[in-house]
Write a structure and sequence with these properties.
By secondary structure, this protein is mainly alpha-helical. It contains eight helices and two strands. A two-stranded antiparallel sheet has the order 1-2. β1 and β2 form a beta hairpin. The chain is globular, with a radius of gyration of 17 Å. The protein binds glutathione.
Length: 170
């Protein structure tokens, strides 16, 4: 496996699209698997957890598969838009009708985390890695709720996460 770093334009005006980035919109992340390009973080995670079945994802037939897929799609279809709209302070009845709002996101997370330490209950999965990520990237957005704060801390304390962070830091 090769990890290639590319530049992207940043909101503060720094950075720029990297012409060598094969992502059709110049974004990150992107997975190139033998010439097949996969983008959208959730899709990359699903692709990898199917290619390398293991403890990070319940496989078809597992009772937790439906909940797992729901979280993976909910992230990209609801949570990410809500987080972005909330961060820039945009609200509109039509947006609320479609996505609800950040309070609803927080309520959904809390309802799950009341049942267990992880979104699927007792087992950590790629859903935790994906869904907690906005709060890891943007701590200012962390809801003031110990269920979510503690869950994000548990996610960040995992050995693989710590190791990857150290690698990324160089
Ligand atoms: N929904 C996408 C979001 C991808 C995305 O917007 N990535 C940002 C960095 S977090 C990016 O590449 N921005 C550069 C740009 O928009 O040109 C995913 O989950 O992969």
């Amino acid at each position: 496996m090769t990890v290639r770093h590319v530049t992207i334009p940043r909101r503060d005006g720094s950075g720029a699209r990297d012409p060598s980035n094969p992502h059709p919109e110049g974004k990150v992340p992107l997975l190139d698997h033998d010439g097949t390009l996969i983008f959208e973080t959730g899709a990359i995670m699903l692709y990898l957890t199917e290619l390398f079945p293991g403890p990070l994802a319940p496989q078809p037939g597992d009772a937790n598969r439906g909940a797992f897929l729901t979280w993976m799609y909910w992230y990209g279809s609801v949570m990410e838009p809500v987080i972005v709209l909330n961060a820039i302070g945009i609200d509109h009845p039509a947006l609320h009708a479609t996505f609800r709002d950040h309070d609803a996101v927080v309520a959904r997370l809390c309802a799950a985390l009341q049942q267990g330490p992880w979104l699927l209950g007792d087992t950590y999965s790629a859903a935790d890695l994906l869904v907690h990520s906005p709060y890891a990237w943007f701590p200012d957005m962390m809801p003031d709720d110990p269920l979510i704060v503690d869950w994000a801390a548990r996610c960040a304390a995992r050995a693989a996460y710590v190791q990857t962070q150290a690698q990324e830091a160089g």
